[in-house]
Design a protein that fits this description.
The protein has 211 residues and is an all-beta fold. The chain has a domain at 67-211: Sortase (Sortase, Chain: A, Beta Barrel). 2% of the residues lie in helices and 35% in strands. The chain is built from 1 helix and 10 strands. The protein has one helix spanning 171-174, and strands spanning 10-12, 18-20, 67-72, 77-84, 101-104, 114-120, 143-148, 153-164, 181-193, 198-209. The strands form 2 sheets. The protein has an 8-stranded mixed barrel. A hairpin with a 5-residue loop joins strand 1 (10-12) and strand 2 (18-20). The chain is globular.
């Protein structure tokens, strides 16, 4: 299938898979519903109440099971993790539930050497808040934790945030070769494009495993 260039920026992973960071908001499995022209209930300038946190206790995790829970204490996030693959357009799919995160199951487990990716919705069909509405409130040094199906927890520390527009390369979002365990969280950002049914930008939170 030929992908319209205005939809996508590609990044190539170490698995040789081309990912589309700029894909339509609605996946092929989601029935199309015209989005009403309304202002979202959230705003990038909205003050987010960050919760007090201390450095979590780091227990070496046994990385042998799929992740099933995302924990970001400073944002009050404790959410299920769905498993997703690629859409028909070749994009990493998104969670079916607005309050869930989604792990790219064809990649690596969070905590393994390389880059694992988890995405989530910024808002929902009628502008309601979703899991990653306030993802941009994360700061360098904040902690992200992933619990797997066996109850093991892997901890990551935020290193940076970056907003990608369509002119930027996303090579570093889905791949790495530095021998470090990375976890990247992805959501939408920018302005809603009603014609393309997607946002103009993507926010990526980069984090590294804490040992």
């Amino acid at each position: 299938m030929k992908i319209p260039l205005e939809w996508c920026v590609l990044g190539v992973s170490t698995f040789g898979i081309a990912f589309i960071l700029f894909a339509p908001f609605f996946t092929p499995s989601t029935p199309f519903t015209p989005r009403p022209v309304i202002e979202p209930v959230w705003s990038p300038t909205t003050q987010v109440k960050r919760l007090f946190t201390s450095k979590p206790v780091i227990i070496p995790a046994i990385l042998d099971a799929a992740p099933n829970r995302l924990l970001i204490q400073v944002l009050g996030i404790d959410a299920p993790i769905e498993q997703v693959g690629l859409t028909m357009e070749g994009a990493m799919d998104t969670p079916q539930n607005p309050e869930d995160a989604a792990w790219f199951r064809d990649g690596i487990l969070p905590g393994q050497i390389g880059t694992a990716a988890i995405d989530g919705h910024l808002d929902w069909i009628h502008g309601e808040p979703a899991l990653f509405t306030h993802l941009s409130a994360l700061h360098k040094g904040d902690y992200i934790q992933v619990r797997d199906e066996n109850g093991h927890v892997t901890t990551f520390v935020v290193t940076s945030l970056h907003t990608y527009n369509k002119s930027e390369s996303t090579m570093g979002v889905f791949s790495s070769n530095d021998g470090i365990s990375h976890l990247n969280l992805i959501t939408c950002e920018g302005t809603w494009n009603a014609k393309l049914q997607t946002y103009t930008d993507r926010l990526v939170v980069f984090s590294d495993r804490v040992h």
